[in-house]
Amino acid sequence: MKLILLYIQSMLLDLLPVIPVVLLLRLGVCFYHRKKGRKTTALHETGVILFALFLMGLASVTVSLDFLFRGEFAMRGEVNFVPLRTILIYWSGGTASELLINIWGNIGMFLPIGFCVPLLWEKREAFRWALLCGFGVSFLIEFLQLFSFRTTDVDDLILNTLGACLGWLAFVLLNRLFPRAVERFRMKRI
Description:
mainly alpha, two-stranded antiparallel ribbon, two-stranded parallel sheet
């Protein structure tokens, strides 16, 4: 649990400088939508801002872009392209802490992607969008980790995509139980 809190603390410290930029960008987007005849809601904007900050926080704890500033493009971390190898190692002989961070952490940190995309963008409600967004973001992270001191692992890709799919299921459940609540997060035509 202490490690998870350290990740969250690290994320929050990385996000502090970008919060004003995100807010200004969203303000500009609101004016653009207004001009195009779309009305946004406070819940939609809050959701989009929090989702953007989540994605930036996710990047801050999973990807180091130091190689861009140093000009060093050598692979440094470990690489696993064998599906399920790492999952089976942790599942059969890992400690509770390793299971929590490596298995459940990889699933859990992608739940918001599968949940927020259909919640905030009505045209992205289909399952394929959760699958595509989860896989795409995870693939980008794993690709960038090839050039850092992090480990690139196909099992992370599998678990992250599974997390996005489970997030989509949570959205579907919410939408079935509380369709009015979901509608409040959507943009409207004026």
